[in-house]
Amino acid sequence: MHDLRRQALESGKTVSRKARSKQASPTSSRPSSQPPSRAASRSRAVSRAGSEEDEAGNLSDETSFSTNSIDELLNGDASDPLTDAWRADLADRIQELFDRKRSSVQGREKCLATYGRILTAQYAGEDIRGKEAELVLAFLKSIKAETSERETILAIKALAMTVVTSPSDRIYEAVCGPLKRVISDSISVPTKVAAVHCLGTCTFFGGASDDEILDNMAYLLEIVASDGSFIDAQDEADPVVAALEEWGSLSTLIDDLADESEDAAEYFVDQLSSSDPGVQIAAGENIALLYEKSYRPLTEDDSGTEFGGGDIIADPDDVPGVPKLVKNYDVYRRTDVLKDTLSDLASLNTRRLSKKEQKAIRTNFADILDSVEYPTHGPRYQNAISQDTGKRYGSRMTVRIHKEGVMKIDKWWKLHRLQALRRVLQSGFVKHYEANPIVFESLPYPAPSNYVHIAG
Predict the structure, then answer these.
(1) Under a CB-based contact definition with an 8 Å cutoff, are residues 136 and 162 in contact?
(2) pLDDT at 60
(3) In angstroms, what CA-CA distances link 346 with 222, 333, 362?
(4) What pLDDT sits at residue 318?
């Protein structure tokens, strides 16, 4: 297991490079026209606001890769308790998946749904170990055949849960091509969305090399830059949101994004003009991550180096032991224009959106603007001074892990990884965080502030 985790998340220092030349240059991203079906994306946008007033959503939807309430994401595990009978049930479902010739579409849908439900609610690493290759082949048969939309999406979800439960350095190579074909060729937008998320999960945990990670980031950027037309999903919001989210997740594996930042920032800034709140927020979160990653701790080796004005920033409270940060590179040429755009979104008032949608945009973009101005500030940073400590409250987003304590989500890279894990694990996040080593290692508790990837 150590070698599998190591292959998935370790290797040497990941060094960024320019994306390889593309067969066709990405079209300039433009403000998206109102997408025909945007309910799911707008629901995600509303949920990101973190409102305690949001009603709990259905996190047990076996075909969903999205999360609903941010409160549930951070503080809850709504999975139904299973008895020890789940092991026998899982073994039966695995055997049923292997016996495809004797199955019907409805039978496979039921089998895949049960398999995914069990792997979500329980950590079944030992139960599927040694069977990964055969399971992947079974899932790929359903994915390639696309006999029904439900079976295809359930198979994609089962594949993602399998790679998170028992990572293997051979999974990525086997699934990358088929997933990209589904993303490009499927006539079902929900199938495209599920496949984009699964591609991100398999790239993160399935043994992709450094170059393959960067290539897939470039592929996802093509989807964003073309407003979905690159995968024949013109002006569909959900595939663009999925591509933005998975780009952000994969970018947390990269030490230095200097070569990628300029192009990526251009496309993300373009998407701030989208008519869909989900697209805007996902693009904004990636912008905040880019600014966060453009700074590094100031070290003694920098003592003889001259830096320009504004290139060095200090902790506003001068906390002992917290180093100053120095800017490595510029993320975006017109940061002044970007700040104006973010400020407009942080104070948005329009009749085009519901009150919840407006609140989601205002809340998120207030955070994003703050991080662009002060890259030391993470999500939900509060400048208010605590009467008890005399210092700023700082980031107040936390995850309660049952009795283990509270993890502060005070960096954008932490939020991106948390959201990526939660998209796959949904109501089983806490269970897997406690029992699944690969999940814990991807977001360790307590996590170092400059954590990038795990050395074995």
Answers:
(1) yes
(2) 39
(3) 27, 21, 4
(4) 54
On whether the CB atoms of residues 162 and 198 are closer than 8 A, the answer is no
206 C-beta neighbours (distance < 10 Å), count: 30
Residue 193: partners with Cβ closer than 8 Å, 6 or more residues away: 65, 238, 239, 241, 242
- In the block, residue with structure tokens 């629901």: 43
| Spatial distance between the Cα atoms of 46 and 357, rounded to a whole number of angstroms | 5
In this model, does residue 53 exceed pLDDT 60? no
Q: Which residues contact 50 (CB under 8 A, 6 or more apart)?
A: 70, 71, 363, 380, 397
pLDDT for the residue 51: 37
Above 50 in pLDDT, residue 311? yes
Residues of the chain with pLDDT > 90: what percent? 57
Nearest to 229 by CA among 21, 30, 22, 20: 30
Beta strands in 277-380, from DSSP E residues, in sequence order = 295-297, 312-313, 325-327
pLDDT value, residue 35: 38
pLDDT at 114 over 90: yes
What is the C-alpha to C-alpha distance for residues 281 and 365, in angstroms, rounded to an integer?
Answer: 7
Whether omega before 178 lies within 30 degrees of 0, making that bond cis, reads: no
Amino acid found at 89: D
DSSP bridge pairs for 398 = 408
CA-wise closest residue to 242 among 163, 153, 331, 169: 153
Average pLDDT of the chain is 80
Name the pTM for this structure: 0.81
Q: How many CA atoms lie within 13 A of 124 on its CB side?
A: 29
